[in-house]
Amino acid sequence: MILLDKIKDFAQRYASPFEMAEDGIMGMNQRNVNYIGRYNKRSLYPLVDNKLLTKKIALKNNVKTPKLLGSIKNLPEVNADLDIIGDHTEFCIKPAHGSGGKGILVIKDKSKTTGNFIKTSGQEITEHELKRHITNILAGLFSLGGKPDIALIEELIHFDNVFSGYSYDGVPDTRVIVFQGFPIMCMMRLSTSASDGKANLHQGAVGVGICVRTGRAVRAVQHNEPISIHPDTDKVLAELRVPNWHEVLSLAASCYDMSGLGYIGTDIVLDRDKGPMLLELNARPGLAIQICNNAGLLPRLRLIEALTKKHRFTIEQRVCFSMQHFGVFKE
pTM (2 decimals)? Predict the structure, then answer.
């Protein structure tokens, strides 16, 4: 009887694969075979799996991205970290091959009394601890497959004040799925105390679906369950709206021309002084964005696939097409 109740509960909570297909929900196998495998050449993966290469091609293509202060590639260079940091009291250290936000260390200030570095949480770390973190990055502690890595030191992003209260102890970013140069689905990822200030949904961050036409919030979820307010700040999530929206979509669309990858996730942040900036690219973007938008990716993907002469579309034309066809709200 207990088992029967569990089966009934499962049936009520989760749709069957057939129901999901009817709703246009894309599954993992479809994504891997029909889109990632078909539209992403394996030879191009290093451009997005290596954040240093991503930054180089972004600079080459005039795509705005956080300034790189320097990189550390081997142990003898670790002692040069302070030379790279210089007078900067705000910076970010991250692994070039990291994933899921692992290994990212954000420093927001330096103590005038102790000389220690201060993390966004307020915790102080010594220069020795900073170097140990860099050494762990080089050893591959945070990299894909545990392979030796490179430590990148970047200028710190200051998120736009319009997002005050929407994120806890971290920088909110906008994930845009781009297919053959067309932005087809968007969400904002908002950090929480549960996610330890990281903008990763599987760690407990909040995902907010964003209307492609207007940049307005569609629906918010945490741990795949609908929510209406931020769990740490009580901010009403339905009121969220991304400014400079057309510029955000144009930046995302340009990443197709920059990378050559047909199916990618672009992560964009809004700096209060510099506007939209590319944070990183993902050649294997997750599927939770469908839950955030309460919509499936497949109908949008198939509409783009059916377009003739789409290779002749400019970035502006691709953005306008997406805003027209994939919007939820009207202005």
Answer: 0.89
Tens digit of each residue's pLDDT (9 = 90 or more) over 103-131:
999 999 999 999 999 987 789 999 999 99
Structure tokens at 290: 């469908």
Under 8 Å between Cβ of 227 and 201: no
- In sign, the C-alpha dihedral spanning 33, 39, 44, 48 is negative
* pLDDT(64) > 50: yes
CATH of the domain at 39: 3.30.470.20
Q: Which of 130, 155, 180 is the last residue of a domain?
A: 155
- In the chain, what is the straight-line distance between the N-terminal and C-terminal CA atoms, in Å? 52
Range of the domain at 275: 19-48+160-325
Clarify whether residues 177 and 273 are in a common domain.
yes
Q: Which residue has the tokens 């993390």?
A: 119
Number of domains in the chain: 2
